[in-house]
Design a protein that fits this description.
The complex is a heterodimer of chains A (291) and B (573). Chain A is an all-alpha fold. Chain A has eleven helices and two strands. Chain A is globular, with a radius of gyration of 19 Å. The chains are: A mainly alpha (291), B alpha/beta (573).
């Protein structure tokens, strides 16, 4: 029982991080960014390469892999989205781009490294037994890192100029442009920060699960689901949504076969949409986001 | 040779499936990301029914069932999902796409689980089994041609025009009395049905269905097909499907490293999609707007005499009554117990400073915003809480401050789409080959031409509405409202932004409206010359209620009111 709960919390925080990054992109660039999965994979494979192939110690490889995530995010913006965001491309085009980028990355990695799953470490992660349940370092690091990152972001948005610029663009892009905010720079920051967030979530996840080309899919999808569940009124909504989904995801296995686990997440999403289309905590406007 | 025939058959199946996608995304503008679900639903339905239920030789019944089940699936998805817009609809359809795989793999008894279903019978019509590759190809290509014709007629029908109007601006469509939500659902179901049909053909052709066939890879493939040729053009998506189909086969002969072909194919299609979006995001072929010719022998339009302003006294009744309307937006009270009557047959002007609640009254009366309190009556009918389309259909219609014409419909189509149709706007039953529909279309086109001539837009008839100048768009909005022929017409700043030269034409048209029997006009207006010229009666609004009313010259002579309007304290005498 406690195992379900703790697993749910740990998953919730890790999904919450991703959801937070996605919400940032959603609010500023206005797009559903499936290519967030590319960033996740880049960090995951970077951690694998640096730690296993080059033999870097984990305390060095992990932050480096997170940095790779940030760079990948910026690279995707510069190489792919900037062209379209400048031209105010329709939503559908942006989403297709991100979906295509994700497919290319997944399958490209599959072609290079095969679909085999590689592990960062074959040893049992250090852990402690609490109330008869073994909790390992990955659980704690997910929660701890999530809290640290969220705290750092809070400071960034409330105390720094680029943070304020991003919030301005998220609130009203045209107005921000008119008062002299450099939207291009704000987007670069957003994609970079979102990349770092995805990197942090990716590294803590794959230490436990190992790396294969499809390891990014479910976390990123759950992150979208948490945005729907939590709403977008402020950036806390997605985090709460993620915690709800994390619990649902793990408690589901208690009563029904594990192969149905994903369906539970989809059901929660669709259920929330039917009952409260604006998200549990509101902020999703009915009329935004036309074709 | 048989191999080539088989490849061509498969391509013809893709063509049908992408026709369905074009109806949903290109025509309907719905951001749908789970197209493989409908294809899969159709395929599984055909497979299960023809293996277990249907007698041999019931190929058409099997395909029909495939289309129906996919359509039913679209109802189940669309009813909740279409409440959410844009991005959310994308995420919901995408979630359902992902869930589909898991559900199908887990329903072992019905779908054969991960192993799928094999030994699906070949196409069989009565005693005749279609087994030869050539015959199969002919059959499937025939079906693809049928699908093309069906979709072409649907796009060209008054129903197709309505779908495009809803795609362009559903609020304007609701304002014209159209049930936008139902229209979106209907095109979603229609597209799903066509796709499910394709799925059924696929099942009988492949003779095997399994969950991996209907995954995300297929979604990406459908998207490439849709976008490559031009998603708004039926011929375009057909070309796109054929091109991609040929590419898939060509790739089999490419010298790719063994073991990673499947991965590399997906990389290639993903890359191709990105490349298309960079080079030509609208695809090879753009949307084709229909051309309309002026019907011959229509004769010159009857010149309506210019009606001079004359004050109409003693109204014979109240056309529309609003009592005690209250509306709060957050902490702001926009309307605070607003009560007003619009007298039948008169032109009433609402004036007042910005923020007085004038447009909010229109929004409440036409159902776009729900009042927090208060009641609205038209004649004896109370319509508080009605939807905009019901109110518009009852005969209370409006123009919008921000014009809201349908930019990707031609000018004449803007007028045609706003008209009331008895037959043409029904999906499937409104195809323009059906006799009643053709006659109706002919009558409506004649009327639309007459209207365009009256409003001086006949030379622009085939231009997209979005290409008109602002004043022309406002003129078109008036023409559209006239086409709807409402009993109560609400005009929100009809002359704002119109230059002096055209002003007279606008006033003429508004007067001509109300000159016809029993029509009630209410306009929000800031130009006092216009008010003086047009209005029989003036309502003065301030702080969310009507504070004064009377004849225009009386209200405008009131120093105190004019001081409120102009935003400074009355000058002490």
């Amino acid at each position: 029982m406690i195992a379900y709960f703790v697993n749910g919390i740990a998953l919730g925080f890790s999904i919450g991080l991703l959801a937070f990054g996605l919400a940032l992109i959603w609010r500023t660039a206005g797009m559903i960014d499936f290519s967030y999965g590319c960033v996740f994979l880049a960090s995951a494979y970077a951690a694998l390469g640096l730690h296993v192939l080059l033999g870097w110690p984990l305390w060095l490889a992990a932050p480096a892999a997170v940095g790779v995530g940030g760079l990948t995010g910026m690279g995707l913006y510069l190489g792919l989205y900037r062209h379209f965001l400048r031209r105010r491309a329709p939503l559908f085009v942006l989403v297709l781009l991100s979906l295509a980028a994700f497919t290319v990355t997944e399958n490209g990695l599959g072609a290079m490294f095969t679909a085999q799953r590689f592990y960062l470490t074959h040893e049992l992660l250090p852990g402690w037994t609490v109330l008869g349940v073994r909790l390992n370092a990955a659980h704690f690091s997910k929660i701890a890192i999530a809290l640290v990152v969220l705290g750092a972001l809070w400071l960034f948005f409330t105390r720094t100029r680029p943070g304020a610029a991003i919030l301005a663009v998220a609130d009203n892009r045209q107005l921000a442009e008119a008062v002299g905010v450099n939207v291009n720079h704000a987007y670069l920051w957003v994609f970079g920060i979102a990349g770092l967030i995805a990197g942090a979530a990716a590294v803590t996840t794959v230490i436990e699960t190992g790396v294969d080309p499809f390891v990014g899919f479910v976390p990123v999808f759950l992150a979208f689901a948490s945005i729907i569940v939590g709403g977008l009124r402020d950036l806390r909504g997605p985090l709460v949504g993620a915690l709800v989904l994390g619990q649902a995801f793990h408690w589901a296995v208690w009563k029904i076969p594990a192969s149905w686990q994903e369906v539970v997440a989809y059901t929660v999403v669709i259920g929330v949409l039917m009952v409260r289309p604006e998200g549990l905590f509101g902020g999703i406007q009915r009329f935004q986001g036309r074709t | 040779m048989d191999y080539v025939l088989g490849v061509l058959t498969l391509i013809a199946i893709w063509v049908i499936a992408v026709h369905g996608y074009m109806l949903i995304k290109g025509l309907g503008g719905l951001l749908h990301l789970g197209h493989a679900v409908f294809f899969g639903l159709g395929a599984y339905t055909a497979a299960i029914l023809s293996r277990e239920v249907l007698p041999a030789g019931a190929y058409p019944a099997s395909l029909l069932a495939a289309a129906l089940v996919a359509g039913a699936g679209a109802v189940a998805i669309g009813v909740p999902a279409l409440r959410a817009r844009g991005r959310y609809f994308m995420l919901v359809t995408f979630s359902i796409q992902l869930a589909f795989f898991t559900v199908v793999s887990n329903l072992h008894g019905l779908t054969g689980g991960p192993d799928g279903l094999s030994r699906i019978p070949r196409p069989q019509l009565g005693a005749w089994t279609v087994a030869a590759p050539g015959a199969t190809l002919a059959l499937v290509v025939g079906l693809a041609v049928l699908s093309f014709l069906f979709c072409h007629l649907t796009i060209r029908s008054p129903y197709g025009r309505l779908v495009r109007a809803v795609r362009d601006d559903e609020i304007a469509a609701e304002g014209a009395g159209k049930r936008a939500a139902a229209v979106k659902l209907s095109i979603f179901v229609l597209g799903a049905g066509v796709t499910g049909f394709a799925g059924g053909v696929f099942a009988h052709y492949m003779r095997y269905v399994g969950p991996t066939q209907f995954g995300l890879d297929l979604v990406v493939l459908f998207l490439v097909m849709l976008v490559l040729g031009g998603q708004f053009n039926l011929l375009g998506v057909t070309v796109g499907a054929v091109t991609v189909g040929v590419m898939i086969e060509a790739l089999r002969f490419a010298p790719l490293p063994r073991g990673s072909e499947a991965f590399l194919h997906q990389v290639l299609f993903g890359g191709l999609l990105i490349a298309i979006l960079f080079i030509r995001p609208e695809g090879l072929l753009p949307e084709r707007l229909p051309r309309h010719r002026r019907p011959a022998g229509g004769g010159p339009p009857a010149r309506v005499e210019a009606v001079r302003a004359h004050r109409r006294e003693a109204p014979d009744g109240v056309a529309l009554r609003a009592e005690g309307l209250v509306k709060r937006f957050g902490g702001v009270t926009a309307l605070d117990g607003c009560t007003l009557d619009l007298a039948r047959g008169r032109i009433t002007a609402i004036i007042g400073p910005n923020g007085a609640g004038k447009t909010t009254v229109f929004n409440l009366v036409t159902g776009f915003v729900r009042p927090d309190a208060g009641r609205i009556h038209v004649g004896a009918q109370e319509l508080t809480g009605w939807t905009p389309e019901r109110i518009a259909a009852l005969g209370v219609a409006r123009t919008f401050q921000d014009v809201r014409i349908w930019p990707r419909l031609t000018v004449i189509e803007n007028v045609l789409a706003a008209m009331r149709w008895r037959r043409g706007e029904r999906p499937v039953l409104g195809l323009p080959i059906l006799p009643g529909v053709r006659a109706e279309e002919r009558q409506h086109v004649e009327r639309a031409w007459a209207l365009l001539e009256r409003f001086g837009l006949q030379d622009k008839a085939d231009d997209p509405g979005g290409a008109l100048s602002y004043a022309q768009q406002k003129m078109l909005a008036l023409a559209r409202l006239t086409a709807l022929d409402p009993a109560v017409m609400l005009l929100d700043e009809p002359t704002a932004g119109v230059d002096v030269c055209r002003l007279g034409t606008f006033l003429d048209h508004i007067q001509r409206f109300s000159a016809q029997q029993g029509r009630t006009v209410c306009l929000i207006e800031h130009n006092m010359d216009v008010v003086r010229e047009l209005a029989d009666h003036v309502l003065f609004m301030n702080d969310g209620r009507v504070v004064a009313e009377g004849r225009p010259e009386e209200v405008m002579a009131d120093q105190e009111l004019m001081a409120i309007y102009l935003g400074h304290a009355p000058v002490e005498a």
